[in-house]
Structure formats: structure tokens, C-alpha cells
Here is the input.
Amino acid sequence: MNFLKQPDLGIFFARLGLGIMLLMHGIAKILNGIGFIKNLVLKQGLPEFVAYGVYVGEVVAPVLLILGIYTRVASAIVLATCAAILYLFYLPNGDLFTLSSHGGFKPEIVYLYISLGFCILLSGSGKYALKRD
Here is the structure.
């Protein structure tokens, strides 16, 4: 077997990378609260309870991705979370396609999360998961 032809291992690392990166954001929200998110939600005229969805998108879904449980559902939640981030934070500022001083898009990390989310949504959990789909 060719070592470089390991799609299941690639999916595993995509799940780990996306899950760990998002979970770090979730842990920060657990430790510091979601006041910033509540303000963004209220500015858009949405009810305050919508802000608590950040815990699902940045704690629950990443843990599911890392473990490989309901990965397609978890990646759909991540995609919804990313859409909310773009809508609440970047769209009002007109920064969806604005370039940063370093040459990348200002929300490039969100676009990376979206790319990985679609890869996992379309590929499933792969072989290295607690519950393969």
C-alpha cells in the first residue's frame, strides 16, 4: 500500500484539525462568557438566546468531530456556526471579501473552517472514528 494514499487518515486529520481549532474557541467562551456574541446577536435584532448556540457550534460539534461520532451532523452544525459568524461579525462591517494587511481575506479562518466542514460533510467520518458513517 502506498503511504500517500490514505484517504481515511486524511479525513481523520481534517476532523482533528477542525475539531481542535473550534474547541479552543469554545473553551475560551466557557471561561470568559459570551457577552461579545450576545451583543452581536442583539445588534442584528435577534433574540438573546440565539447567542447560546455558540456552545453547540464551538463545543459540542467539535467534540463530536474529534471523536468521530455523528460527524456529518457535527460538520453541518459547524457550517451553520460559520454562516452565523459571517452574518453577525463580518457582513455588517462589509468584510466578507476585504483583504487584510497580510493579503488574505479578513475572515479567512472562517473560510478554512467552511472548507474543512464541507470536506467532512461529504466524506463522512472515515475509518478512524468511534461511530463510522
